[in-house]
Specification:
By secondary structure, this protein is of the alpha+beta class. The protein folds into 2 domains: 36 residues; 76 residues, 2-Layer Sandwich (Alpha-Beta Plaits), CATH 3.30.70. Strands 1-3-2 form a 3-stranded antiparallel sheet, covered by helices on one side. β2 and β3 form a beta hairpin. α3 crosses α4. The longest helix is centred in the N-terminal third of the chain and has 18 residues. The termini are far apart.
């Protein structure tokens, strides 16, 4: 009986279908985004400063030992580093999606603690 009503009135059925589609299209932007996963991979950075050192000295005495020690942390995808002429050094480790960034930071901090004794004493 309900179906017969729409079969005998195709224009009314079309208008109802279009209204339902329009209501759905209006409602889609209001859906919460909390259900979508975080697609940015976790990243941990180690920044250091060697006052008065050139980029080459920073690279050989600070950046390379840090890279070698941090390399191999569980769940790490890749590592990037940068040594500046102002004595700055930055080493960034990027981890697999889903890896807890806090646990990754603890793992990296433990590795950095192991190498601190081999770095020059002027390094902050």
């Amino acid at each position: 009986m309900f179906v017969d009503f729409f079969i005998h009135r195709p224009i009314f059925a079309t208008v109802c279908a279009l209204l339902i589609i329009l209501a759905g299209a209006v409602a889609i932007p209001t859906l919460p985004v909390a259900q979508f996963p975080n697609l940015a991979p976790p990243q941990v950075s180690v920044n250091s400063f060697y006052n008065g050192a050139s980029a080459q000295v920073v690279e050989t005495s600070v950046t390379t030992p840090l890279e070698q020690q941090i390399n191999g942390v569980k769940g790490m995808k890749y590592i990037t580093s940068n040594s500046g002429n102002d004595g700055s050094s930055s080493v960034s480790a990027t981890f697999d999606i889903g890896r807890d960034v806090d646990l990754a930071a603890v793992d990296v901090q433990n590795r950095v603690s192991n190498v601190q004794g081999r770095l020059p004493s002027e390094v902050n």
